[in-house]
Design brief:
Rossmann fold; nine-stranded mixed beta sheet; four-stranded parallel beta sheet; about 525 residues; GMP Synthetase, Chain A, domain 3; about 25% strand
Length: about 525
Amino acid sequence: MRSIDYFDKQAQLHPDRPILIADEAQYSYAQMYRLTHRLAGAMRAAGLAHQEPVAIMSPNHGAILTTLLGLWRAGAVWIPVNTRNALDANIAYLDYVRAGWLFYHSSLAAEARDVQARVPSIRKLICLDAEDGEHPSLDAFMLPEDAPDAPDLGDPVGNPDELTAIIATGGTTGPAKGVRIMNRSWGALMETIGNLMPADNPVCLATAPLTHAAGPVAMAAVAMGATVSVLPGFDAEAVMRAIQRDRVTHMFLPPTALYTMLAHPHVRDYDYSSLRYFLLAGSPVSPDKLRQAVEIFGPCMCQSYGQTECHMIATWLPPHEVAAAARGDHPERLASCGKASYSVRVELMDDDGNILPTGEVGEIVARGGIVGGGYYEMPEATAEATAHGWHHSGDVGRRDEHGYYYIVDRKKDMVVTGGFNVYSAEVEGAIMELDAVAEAAIIGLPHAHWGEQVHAVVVRSGEIDEAAVIAHVKARLGSVKAPKTVAFVDAIPRTAAGKMDKKALRQPYWGDQARMVN
């Protein structure tokens, strides 16, 4: 099916059900259906080409949902723009994918004009929430309310190889690569999430950026007939309040946002009984924090592992298994990202392309429906990422005898000290067991004898010193893996995608060599 078909099914089944709750607007499925036709008709009348890239640059806002569904109905390709990126990086990306249209929020009007001036392919700008000089608002641009439905120009079988999006990778190495999200891989993701996270009368809270994992989660919820409640950004108490007010059943947040909620003084003051799926993804989760989350939010916590290239749900650890692990039934699974999901095969591979047996550590590789179509106009990078007929994640992991996967590290983040491999994620997990630690990152520092030495960067939430951190890790993991030095900081730098920026952490110690390990 095409992306818009998932919405159309629910609009037909539940026309009166609300699809959107936001400060600026509320719409039913029937109302949204008409809006998407009015927008698609206007885009086609303005000369939109089939499969033309159309960018959306905005903080979280209800109009994103309308625009996204409308551009899909028109046959365009979604280009999400990460507003946390530097403007130059976004301009370079939009130029690379040759975006033809830009929908933007009025708070980014100056940036939109820079994009228009510096990206030759941009020929139409529309402001989502207001008139902006010569650029119309979304409402003003649409066809009139009494306009006929836009004709359906789609392939009757839903061409599986057509693009639905080109989504930028979120790494720290060089310019972003655009991942080709096709009808087939997007559909596999929608159906995988729908099968794994069913609920009656679903309500999905979108508070993480819709330009990242929160966007696919919200659209998968729409494919289930959900109401999407949109918050402008993450604020811990606003999220708690919205869960209680809107009777939220589904939500996604990265682990760092969960930690902020757990530390909030009013976290136990709200009703979370409606929650069925509180999904954590994007980075490993501290088992102790996950156990605490089950205690506070109930048996709704779940984890997945995936990437932009291998869409989000390559593995799945469901709420009932997280809750059981929190009670002491296989507690080690609190550190797992679960088993391979329905639409993908996951294995571990060595550097020579050999599939490794259970228990051995290797690179996580995947093949199946949720693997995208490689990188946009980058055949060499695509060939490298799909060597031996598998998508190569760049992550190192292992699988236990029951089929559960455990992320060990990013290949690039492994510290090699005295010939021993030290996986930073394992050491970070041990440090995070300490109550006085809010966050931790492990990097390797240059060492004349050992090559690298293990160094910890720690954000404190209480009183703790270097000796206590080192002693704890030494007792848990041994002296080789224990950090030799600890630096305490107010915050760990993050990339625009919200990941720890270890390149920035390494730079003061390695200089230009820091780029070699990314």
